């Protein structure tokens, strides 16, 4: 076993299939003393690294710190699905914020999709892109909504790549009898997220950003026109700062902590499904209609990568494999005894309305996170948009700043228990 496969993240239980397939992951130094820069960034996921790259290539001095290793957070171990639009369907957003703003957010998400794929191509990052995604309904009563969504996307949002699937087609394309209907989206796809993260860190460093691993921010404050970030390895003094910690903000900044909550999400990878050609024969990714979403896809070498267990506490299950196997067998009974070679998980950040939290939390300090399971392309793009805001090139980030993202109820001691109760209730509704 290589040192790459032996590395056990302190924040992410299990060894991911992604980690096991990237070879020796590059290492970066810890910060070795105090730094002064134009922009300081806390968090080395997609958002932070994209911001660092786009700022550095424009001549802005950037210092970025990551508490663990690049890729240990959700950016390096997520489900890899790009999706289309926002976390809400566009017609749902229309009801809340009107067509004009809903359309602007949809178009922004399409720009995010193009930007991610173009970035990977331009910088020769092989992200194992595979086209196609299906959203499928686990209740028959959802059929009218799915049919209407496909029509609205094409007619009102100029997105002709989605098509409604009836029960027979849905079951054929999934190789499962578990779902009643669905939408097939040929305008998106899925990737190997850790390959993108590794490439992004390399590109940011080559652009001149100072990026440091194993350097934890312990406090952040503003005073005298400057932002000061205390770390385990020294102090960073900057004109502006970005907090891009998502589900790992902890006690660093209280406004973000009230609005972005961590939940635990877990994924398993099987052996290649050589003997099961009926499972996802078109190699599309899948997400279902449960509140506790089950999301799965096949890797380029034919493994089933299956995510579907959320935990609403900070605890880790003793056996990730057991829970993942049970959910796989519900959808694919023939795979009930399939070998699961890798199982892993960790925190992801969610907000109350499952939309990104973007806000200036103190003078000169912007916080971005809470992508709520829809962050592969949005987190990358939000990092780019933050850089463009600093550079005065674009105000598109204001589309997210204008969203109503309420705080989770309760004080610091009650937020987690109340979240557990609320989300467990919604999870229970998935069964009826």
Strand content: 25-35%
Our measurement of the CA-to-CA distance between the termini, rounded to an integer number of angstroms, reads 45 Å
Biggest pleated sheet: 8 strands, mixed
Number of DSSP helical runs: 13
Poorly predicted regions: none
Give the rounded overall mean pLDDT.
93
Radius of gyration: 21 Å
SS content category: alpha/beta
Please bin the fraction of helical residues.
25-40%
Q: What is the molecular shape? A: globular
Write the layout of secondary structure elements.
Blueprint: H1 3-6, H2 17-20, E1 35-42, H3 46-56, E2 62-65, H4 90-97, H5 99-122, E3 130-137, H6 143-155, E4 162-165, H7 167-174, E5 181-190, H8 193-206, E6 210-212, E7 217-223, E8 226-231, E9 234-243, H9 254-259, E10 261-272, E11 285-288, E12 295-298, E13 303-311, H10 320-331, E14 340-350, E15 357-362, E16 365-369, H11 375-391, H12 398-401, H13 415-429
Parallel strand pairs: 1-2, 1-9, 2-6, 3-11, 9-16
Antiparallel strand pairs: 3-5, 4-5, 7-8, 8-9, 10-13, 10-14, 11-12, 12-13, 15-16
Helix pairs in contact: 3-8, 3-11, 4-5, 5-11
Description:
By secondary structure, this protein is an alpha/beta fold. Helix content is 32%, strand content 26%. The chain has 13 helices and 16 strands. It has helices spanning 3-6, 17-20, 46-56, 90-97, 99-122, 143-155, 167-174, 193-206, 254-259, 320-331, 375-391, 398-401, 415-429, and strands spanning 35-42, 62-65, 130-137, 162-165, 181-190, 210-212, 217-223, 226-231, 234-243, 261-272, 285-288, 295-298, 303-311, 340-350, 357-362, 365-369. Strands 1, 2, 6, 7, 8, 9, 15 and 16 form an eight-stranded mixed beta sheet that branches. It has an eight-stranded mixed beta sheet with strand order 4-5-3-11-12-13-10-14. A hairpin with a 2-residue loop joins strand 8 and strand 9 (234-243). Helix 5 (99-122) packs across helix 11 (375-391). The longest helix is centred in the first third of the chain and has 24 residues, at 99-122. The N and C termini lie far apart (45 Å). The mean pLDDT is 93.
């Amino acid at each position: 076993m290589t040192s790459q496969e032996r590395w056990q993240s302190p924040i992410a239980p299990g060894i991911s299939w992604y980690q096991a397939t990237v070879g020796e992951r590059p290492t970066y130094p810890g910060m070795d003393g105090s730094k002064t820069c134009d922009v300081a960034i806390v968090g080395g996921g997609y958002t932070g690294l994209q911001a660092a790259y786009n700022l550095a290539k424009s001549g802005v001095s950037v210092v970025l710190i990551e508490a663990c290793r690049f890729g240990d957070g959700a950016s390096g171990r997520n489900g890899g699905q790009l999706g289309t639009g926002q976390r809400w369907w566009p017609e749902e957003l229309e009801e809340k914020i009107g067509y004009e703003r809903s359309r602007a957010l949809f178009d922004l998400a399409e720009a995010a999709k193009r930007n991610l794929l173009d970035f990977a191509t331009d910088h020769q990052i092989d992200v194992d892109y595979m086209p196609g995604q299906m959203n499928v309904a686990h209740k028959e009563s959802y059929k009218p909504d799915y049919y209407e969504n496909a029509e609205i996307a094409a007619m009102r949002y100029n997105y002709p790549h989605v098509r409604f699937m009836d029960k027979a087609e849905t079951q054929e394309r999934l190789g499962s009898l578990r779902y009643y209907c669905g939408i097939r989206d040929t305008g998106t796809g899925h990737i190997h997220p850790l390959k993108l993260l590794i490439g992004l860190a390399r590109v940011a460093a080559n652009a001149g950003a100072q990026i440091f691993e194993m350097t934890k921010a312990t406090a952040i404050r503003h005073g005298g026109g400057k932002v000061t970030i205390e770390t385990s390895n020294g102090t960073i003094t900057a004109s502006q700062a970005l907090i891009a910690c998502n589900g790992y903000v902890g006690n660093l900044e209280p406004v973000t902590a009230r609005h972005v909550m961590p939940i635990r999400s877990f994924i398993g990878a099987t052996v290649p499904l050589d003997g099961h050609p009926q499972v996802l024969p078109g190699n599309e990714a899948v997400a279902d209609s449960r509140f506790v979403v089950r999301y799965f896809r096949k890797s380029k070498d034919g493994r089933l990568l299956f995510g579907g267990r959320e935990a609403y506490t900070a605890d880790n299950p003793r056996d990730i494999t057991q829970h993942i196997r049970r959910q796989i067998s519900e959808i694919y009974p023939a795979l009930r005894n399939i070998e699961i070679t890798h199982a892993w998980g960790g925190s992801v950040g969610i907000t109350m309305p499952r939309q990104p939290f973007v806000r200036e939390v103190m003078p000169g300090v912007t916080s971005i996170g809470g992508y709520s399971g829809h962050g592969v392309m949005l987190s990358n793009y939000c990092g780019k948009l933050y850089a463009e805001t600093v550079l005065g090139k674009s105000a598109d980030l204001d589309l997210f700043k204008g969203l109503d993202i309420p705080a989770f109820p309760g004080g610091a001691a009650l937020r987690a228990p109340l979240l557990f109760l609320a989300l467990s209730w919604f999870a229970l509704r998935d069964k009826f």
